[in-house]
Design the sequence.
């Protein structure tokens, strides 16, 4: 009790303001420690986007999309020999394998035919594209099938076999308009061939592959996305540019519909942990501040929440403010969902 009374008496005897020197209050603004740039992974047109300057985002959230050349299947078939992978250069794959992939058509056989041996009437020597015809093996009458005429040039025409019963490759056939194969309906003869798989080619680099080996595809199905530039790390993508880390978007430097080049800046951001409080301090107070000192920080927007920060740096040159010299004191702050760039705050030392 005597010690407490003595302390109170001593405090009462101190000059006014002496107790105030026990602490310093300095005001400042939350700033980014560093800004980082988000660039285009390849050339392309920027799609519609909703992000804007100041948005607080999580790592992996999509920011922008860039278009790509889309390669589609030209016909129904089965993917055979899928050689391209995301990130591959199309030219190098095609130099080695001839194509990015091959499609084996559902139509496995065609026939090259002529009107030789057709019935005598002219109508049996005039072949029509798209007409349905019937065929039978020249050497074995039990081997037969149906076909569609796909092209006509003079006396020559081609067929695509739609059904076949044990028809052999390179087999000679007779062609009829009558499913009974009567000689009076004969329109010619020809030879059956195997339809070769057709290669799918492109120019550029593979951004994405949308099929797998052995997959059935229909005409118009998406096979590949191709971009004009090599992709970093030989990696593909889904076409979106994503937020690299938790943080705040500081600027957006592109517009929807804009054509951008590889590595062109699209936006800047500050990581969540890269925010600091910068306070201009009068030179007469600098002697009471040291790097490494812990300080109590209160955000103007959240006066009831006190954060413990650490003095990170003291400027080596002053910023003149009227007749006074002030030096920026940088205070590193702990992670907090309330800390935002541009906020005002007060540090107590």
Sequence:
């Amino acid at each position: 009790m005597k010690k407490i009374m003595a302390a109170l008496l001593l405090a009462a005897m101190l000059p006014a303001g002496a107790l105030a020197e026990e602490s310093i209050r300095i005001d400042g603004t939350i700033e980014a420690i560093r800004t980082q740039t988000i660039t285009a992974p390849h050339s392309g047109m920027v799609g519609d986007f909703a992000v804007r300057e100041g948005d607080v985002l999580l790592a992996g959230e999509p920011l922008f999309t860039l278009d790509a050349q889309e390669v589609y299947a030209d016909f129904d078939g089965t993917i055979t020999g899928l050689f391209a992978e995301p990130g591959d250069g199309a030219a190098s794959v095609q130099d080695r394998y001839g194509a990015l992939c091959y499609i084996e058509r559902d139509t496995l056989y065609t026939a090259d035919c002529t009107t030789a041996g057709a019935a005598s009437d002219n109508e049996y020597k005039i072949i029509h594209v798209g007409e349905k015809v019937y065929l039978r093996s020249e050497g074995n009458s039990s081997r037969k099938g149906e076909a569609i005429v796909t092209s006509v040039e003079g006396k020559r025409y081609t067929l695509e076999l739609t059904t076949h019963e044990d028809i052999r490759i390179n087999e000679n056939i007779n062609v009829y308009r009558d499913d009974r194969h009567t000689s009076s309906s004969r329109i010619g003869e020809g030879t059956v061939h195997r339809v070769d798989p057709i290669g799918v080619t492109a120019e550029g680099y593979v951004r994405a592959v949308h099929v797998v080996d052995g997959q059935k595809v229909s005409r118009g199905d998406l096979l590949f996305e191709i971009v004009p530039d090599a992709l970093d790390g030989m990696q593909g993508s889904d076409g979106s540019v994503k937020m690299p880390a938790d943080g705040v978007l500081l600027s957006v430097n592109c517009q929807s519909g804009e054509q951008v080049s590889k590595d062109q800046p699209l936006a800047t951001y500050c990581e969540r942990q890269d925010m600091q409080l910068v306070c201009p301090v009068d030179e007469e107070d600098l002697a009471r501040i040291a790097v490494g000192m812990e300080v109590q920080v209160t955000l103007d927007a959240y006066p009831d929440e006190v954060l413990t920060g650490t003095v990170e740096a003291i400027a080596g040159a002053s910023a003149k403010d009227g007749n006074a010299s002030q030096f920026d004191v940088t205070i590193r702050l702990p992670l907090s969902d309330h800390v935002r760039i541009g906020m005002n705050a007060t540090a107590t030392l």
